[in-house]
Design a protein that fits this description.
The chain is of the alpha/beta class. It has seven helices and seven strands. The strands form two sheets. The protein has a five-stranded mixed β-sheet, with helices on both faces. A two-stranded antiparallel ribbon has the order 6-7. A hairpin with a 2-residue loop joins β1 and β2. α2 packs parallel to α4 and α4 runs parallel beside α5. It is globular. The N and C termini lie far apart (about 60 Å).
């Protein structure tokens, strides 16, 4: 784990994954890399050890559903801990916070995942949110010609 934490800090990436003797780094914001791995390369997460910049409830749920075996976060939300504890996943963090916040207030994903009581329910809520966001990006704006 120490080498993953060093890579996370030195390379200033958002996620470092060690699995099957391979270490990979990722740089997308938020949980986008976890989402991509969960949906397209689940074998990279299953049994992996990860170091992440930020783990909130949403990321914790994705880590659990993905089958990660150990987690480090530079910043971890108190909302992530019950999920990780219940799943029996060892974790460490640099800083523990009450909630993940971004400019303007509480993190959007923290809000979306708030009503969920299980990691699977959380991931389902996130998938719905991501699908809605993708649909909005792919939908051309209508021009009102009145």
């Amino acid at each position: 784990m120490e080498s993953l934490i060093a890579i996370l800090r030195e390379q200033r990436c958002s996620l470092v994954v060690s699995n099957h003797g391979t270490v990979t780094t990722y740089n997308k914001p938020g949980v986008r890399d976890l989402e991509h791995l969960l949906d397209h390369k689940p074998e990279v997460l299953r049994g992996a050890t990860i170091a992440d910049k930020v783990i909130g409830k949403a990321a914790a749920a994705m880590v659990i559903v993905g089958g990660v075996k150990e987690v480090y976060a530079e910043v971890m939300s108190k909302h992530a801990i019950p999920f990780l504890d219940e799943a029996g996943i060892p974790y460490r963090y640099g800083t523990l916070v009450d909630a993940i916040v971004e400019e303007g207030g509480r993190c959007q994903l923290e809000k979306i995942s708030a009503p969920a009581t299980t990691p699977e329910e959380t991931v389902a809520l996130l998938r719905t949110h991501f699908a809605e966001m993708q649909a909005k990006r792919n939908c051309p704006e209508r021009i009102n010609r009145d």
